[in-house]
Amino acid sequence: MADLLVTGGAGFIGGNFVHYLNAKHPDTRVIVLDALTYAGNRSTLQGAANAELVVGDIRDTDLVEKLLRDRDITTIVHFAAESHVDRSISGPDAFIDTNILGTNSLLKAARTVWLAGSGKPHRFHHISTDEVFGSLEPDDPAFRETTPYAPNSPYSASKAASDHLVRAYHHTFGLEVTTSNCSNNYGPYQYPEKLIPLFLLNALHGRNLPIYGDGMNVRDWLHVEDHCRGIEACLVNGKPGETYNIGGGAELPNMTVIDTICAEVDRAFAEIDGLAERYPDAPAAKGKATSSLKTFVIDRVGHDRRYAIDETKARGELGYAPHHGFDDGLRQTLRWYLDNERWWQALL
To answer: Does Cell inner membrane count among this protein's keywords (predicted)?
Structure first.
């Protein structure tokens, strides 16, 4: 695999992708460009021997051009984004700046170096989300690549705009691009503002588990390693100009996810010696059920009811298929957080 520039590679999905490359393609050189905002951490990259971190902003077009030229890079995998819906509601501007203007900056740099410069074969792979498609009714078919865009939050609107820019640079300028729209990721290194790590850590510390509305909003859950596998398939087998949906095949109501988290925390305290001493405030440390922490709160503004991914195209054209079942993947994720307390304690 060619050397890569990975934007946002010190974040959750980007960091996992760097580790995936390090394991699967140890000879591949990876340049990580990350601004190290609150969700980007140097420690996420520890152990990735093939990665070099460059601290910088994707909106710095000159910096990106210099990296592409000086390192002779012909592949960009673009993860860098503001991604938390709640933050986009309270402060949309950062999402416009990073997700739209930042993506445009990367595209400009790639066009300058690759099309007006070297003329070498290249690839710009853009990571997007299923949220750009809006909300589904219970009986609606799952999102396909041809589903019309209907974003409902400032976050999803900014990602939709970035998707359109990537498409436009392909059709107008001939830039060789691919885009993948993924479902809800979970796994190691996820910043504890998202549902699964937030509820895991709250449960360990005896804090409430805040459930929006009735808890029956439905999402498709994708283990981050399966997502990395899908991105690799896009780079190897994807056709320029095409988009691919990457899903986990685990469409679940939030309440089911939360109940599974509670059950797995209870299981961990029953199976792991010393856990009660490490986390004495957890209900499970006192012989109580973690589910006792469940608390219903006012629903999020504009909360999409259901997302679902149809990954038929990715399976057929890329050979993609998820390997992780949700129950096993969640159990592995919980055990990772228990084994890597130093990583997340530094964030808190």
So the answer is: no
| 66, burial (CB in 10 Å: exposed 0-12, middle 13-18, buried 19+) | middle
Rounded Cα distance between 289 and 283, Å, is 6
| CATH code at position 136 | 3.40.50.720
Backbone angles phi, psi at 232, to 5 degrees: -55, -45
HEC secondary structure over 240-307? CCCEEEECCCCEEEHHHHHHHHHHHHHHHHHHCCCHHHHCCCCHHHHCCCHHHHEEEECCCCCCCCEC
pLDDT digits (tens, 9 = 90+) for 53-77: 999 999 999 999 999 999 999 999 9
Q: Kindly state the average pLDDT of the residues 100-107.
A: 98
**Catalytic residue numbers, as ranges:** 130-131, 155
Q: At what angle do helices 254-271 and 195-204 cross, to 10 degrees?
A: 40
Per-residue pLDDT at 31 exceeds 90? yes
User: 319 with 233: CB under 8 angstroms?
Assistant: yes
Please give the model's pTM, rounded to 2 decimal places. 0.96
